[in-house]
Amino acid sequence: MNELEEIKTADSLADETAETQTNDSPAEEAETSEAEENLEKTEELPEDSEENTSAEESEESASPDEDKTESEDKTSEEDSEEKKPRSLLSKIANSVLVAVLVLITAFTAYIMINAHHGKAVSIFGNYVLRVTTGSMEPSLHVGDYILVKKTDVNKLQKDDVISFYSEESGIKGELVTHRIVKVNTDGSFITMGDANPMADSLPVRAEQIVGKYSGKTRFFKWVNSFADMKKLIALFVILPLTLIALYEAKTVLKLSVQVKQENDEEYEQRKQELIREAIEKEKQRLAEEASGADKEKIDEPRTNNEKEND
Description:
The chain contains three helices and seven strands. The protein has 310 residues and is an alpha+beta fold. The chain has helices at residues 2-116, 218-224, 229-309, and strands spanning 121-123, 126-130, 145-149, 161-165, 175-183, 189-192, 209-216. The radius of gyration is 55 Å and the shape is rod-shaped.
């Protein structure tokens, strides 16, 4: 009897366990299916969200860069447009300055050569003459350059200093600058040098007169002082070399400034590239952290379900 009872109790226990297993299996299957669906949804959602966020971030990051590049292009174009007129104006100004200097130099040389040979050269109604004798000492010295202005002969009077072409023997046709000591009734003039003991032998007629003395010019005397060999060396050797050195220094300075600007631009570009790379790395890191967090959230229900099943 005891054996039969033990057998029956064992059979009943086996039936109960089978029934519990059959009853529990649908619930477990439902739970597992729901967990799998949740996993699939959660796996799909982060991907979409990551794609959207990455796209938005890329658009946001791209739009400022595009704006920067467009603004930089506009500014560079504006700078180039502004530099073109400036460079053109500077070239025109330099060429005009050089032309003016050449003309002044040539005209000065022409006047000095003619004055040295005793010929009168008119400059806006004034003649530049060179004193070659000491007949007018101490008023006029040898080597002085004087200005003689055209004037009305009828207005000339005593003590005026005039320049005229002499007709005396020995100096005929040469320019002479003497003082009027007497006005003749026929319109001619008696002249005499301040340093001479007597008046000129021949009177001066109106057609001989070049003009009336109006003053000295120190510029031509200063230029004439460079006739000395040392001054000529300084003028034609040292001065050109100095100008060339200054020009070369200016070009070197421009090149150094240009190289510095190029280096600054390269440094700025490299800096922007490094910033972009750092931003991209930070985005990747944040995306990996977000995906890791999502996976942890997904793994938590699994562990909880496993613990409940256990």
